[in-house]
Design goal:
single chain; mainly alpha; Four Helix Bundle (Hemerythrin (Met), subunit A); 64% helix
């Protein structure tokens, strides 16, 4: 087996499941906040789109991962609209490019791109960080989005699919009622 296969599979698996979970987000759900200062799905997808562009540039061209926002970088960030559909489409495009680049690289190439991307920070991290950083980052926000979606539906009295109790025997059975 190609040693890159697990990293490629990880990125493709996480992306596919994430993308499927966003397929039926409504406009109201997209901009709902559980608290006044809380993130919305719309804000999270915008953030992920920006970060996916950076990860893709690192992997494709060896560009450094932005660690601080210069005035020029901040201007480019500020120009990204808060438009869920556009950002979701661009996130998909970037993630597909990232995955394609992952399929084409080698462990040695990935280690080199990681060093270029993270510079001094990269020396303190695993040599293949670039290969799984985006999947881990996406997974954390995916859980956040699933939580927002669950809370949004519950506040409207909707039945919520059992996203967090999938019949896994390692979870205790709820007392008194079946999970919703």
């Amino acid at each position: 087996m190609d040693p890159m296969t697990p990293l490629v599979d990880l990125n493709e698996f996480v992306w596919t499941r994430f993308k499927d979970d966003l397929a039926d987000v409504t406009p109201e759900e997209c901009d709902w906040r559980m608290l006044p200062d809380a993130n919305t799905i719309n804000v999270i997808v915008r953030h992920l789109r920006i970060e996916a562009e950076w990860h893709t540039a690192c992997l494709e061209r060896g560009e450094p991962m932005p660690m601080d926002a210069s005035p020029e970088l901040q201007k480019r960030i500020d120009e990204v609209p808060l438009d869920f559909e556009k950002n979701r489409a661009e996130l998909q495009r970037q993630y597909e490019r990232f995955n394609a680049a992952m399929r084409e690289t080698t462990l040695e190439g990935l280690a080199a791109r990681t060093a270029e991307a993270y510079g001094e920070f990269g020396k303190k991290r695993p040599p293949h960080l670039l290969g799984f950083h985006q999947a881990v980052h996406l997974s954390m926000h995916w859980a956040q989005i699933r939580t927002i979606r669950t809370l949004y539906k519950k506040t409207r009295g909707e039945e919520v699919p059992a996203r967090y109790y999938p019949g896994n025997v390692s979870y205790p059975k709820p007392q008194g009622k079946e999970p919703r």
